[in-house]
Fold UbiA prenyltransferase family protein.
Amino acid sequence: MYVVEPADLPELPRPRGPASDRKAEVRPRLVTDLFRLIRPSHAAKAILLVPLALIDTSLWNLSTVVEVALATVAFILASSAVYVGNDIADRHRDVHHPVKRHRPVAAGRVGIRVAYAYCASLLALLCAVILLTPGPYWPIVVYLLINIAYSRYLKHIPLVDVGTVAVCFVLRVVQGYEVAGGRAATWLLVAVFSMSLLLLIGKRRQELKTGAAHRPALHGYSLELTNWLLQIASVLALVSGLMYLRDEGPFGPQYGQTAMLLSTPFALFALFRYLQIQLMDEGGGDPVRILLRDRVMVANSMLWAATLGVTLVLAHQPVPL
């Protein structure tokens, strides 16, 4: 007996199975994970620090602004490659951290070969930017070398680990001044270094509460020690920042003291707010999130910037009496 099917009936669509759904989702998920690997929010470090050279109004011209912008992009690429490399090196430790275990490499969503290729691509782009704008890019080279040593050895040595990362923040500032053709103020470098130490020590303080399996250097820290270190770094950051505004800032001898006086309440409030988040709200594990997303901190920073902006205008274009 033969069964003849009608030829004019349309072919029913085949249901998509789990395998086809997975293939459709792989590509956008991979792109998202690759984007997360480079820590896009951490680009703020270069965006805020490298252009500090432009505070010196004597360096302002179109060529300098373009060179500083390209130096900022170069440092973003360099730090992105470092983040990918660190995630590859730390993937076995990150699985013990409640947050870091969800990172693409530690979670297994991005393969090791793909991560290595991604890191190499970022370094290739970095080389292209540097070749397009030949200039003094030694701070980026030093930054990469320091991070190689940090990833292999220095990150496991208590106190040296935070000091090494703080130096990398200073290198961002130096890079901006190098391409701009100026000289970085001493008090400014001290302020950036000490402020970086403050944020890094706060991060270590929060990491202590999750255990030391993901970061062996935490065995050299305690909550009491980090509390003392926070106080020391806070004082150094406050004093050095105010001394920069008074003696070496772009306000000149007449308005330098005014800038220091007006900045004192804003600087103190910023430190008080950060310590409040650390000690009362038990936050501070992600310094970038605090600086960019805490509404109180953002409002204080905007008012502070506006105050210094008006002071800078008055310093260079005084109102005639």
